[in-house]
Amino acid sequence: SKVTVTPADLGLDYENVTLTTSDGVDLAAWYIPASSSSAVVVMHGAGSTRSDVLAEASVLHRNGFGTLLLDARGHGDSNGTAMDFGWFGDPDISAGTAYLATRSDVDPEHIGVVGFSMGGEEAIGAAATDPLIAAVVAEGATARTADDKAWLSDVYGWRGWLQEQIEEVQFGITDLLAEASSPTTLRDAVTAATDTSFLLVTAGTVADEQHAAEFIQNAAPERVTVWTVDGATHTGGLDAEPAAWEERVIRFLDENLGSR
Fold first, then answer.
1. How many CA atoms lie within 13 A of 72 on its CB side?
2. pTM tops 0.85, yes or no
C-alpha cells in the first residue's frame, strides 16, 4: 500500500528524508521537528505505511518529541523487499536512529522508538543491537520467531503445545525461503538491551497480546512494563483510550528519554 496521508494533512510542518540502511536499502521517511532535544522513530505494522501511524505521531509531536516516521522496507515509498515478520527491522530502525543522532536539534542520548504490531516487534529487536535506543514503546507486539510463542503450552495446555509445533514449521520454512535470517527472540532482545526500558501496550480484546507481553516481561521485569488498554483492538490503544494512551506513553518517554 502507498502513503496516502501526510503530516501536512494534520497541519504539521515536516521534512522529507531518505535514509539508507547498512545493507544499502533506501527508506522513505518524514521528520516532524519539535521543541525539545528528545526524538522518537515511529514504526508502522505489516502491510501498512507511515500514514497509518500519523495519529500517534501527532500526539508525540504535540508533547514536544521530534518524530521520525519511516516506511519499512518494501512498504509505502521505501525500496527493498517486504518481510511481514519484521526480520529486517534492525537495519531499518538503526538507519532512523542514526539519522536522529546526526541532527543538531536532537540529543543522541534522548532517542526512543515507538512501534506498532510488526513495528513494535522490530523496535524490541533493534534495541538489542542499537545502543542509541534508550526507550521502546511497543503496541501489539507478539512474535517474530517460533520461540516467541513458547508460552502457548503454558496457557493452553496440549492445544498450545500443538500450536507451538505448527509455529516451528512455519517459521522454519520462512527461514529457508527468506533473504533475512531468523532474528533473536523478543525475550532475548529485551535481556540483551540492558540500558533500554520497554513499555508493552496490549489490546484488551486480544488476550494473547497480554500473554505474549508478560512472557517478554519475565525476561527483565525491572525494565519492562505491560499496560493493557481495556476495550482496545489490535494497535487500537489511542482510539480506545486517547487520554490514557497519551498520559501513559508520554510519561514513560519522559522518564526514560530525559527532560523535554
1. 30
2. yes
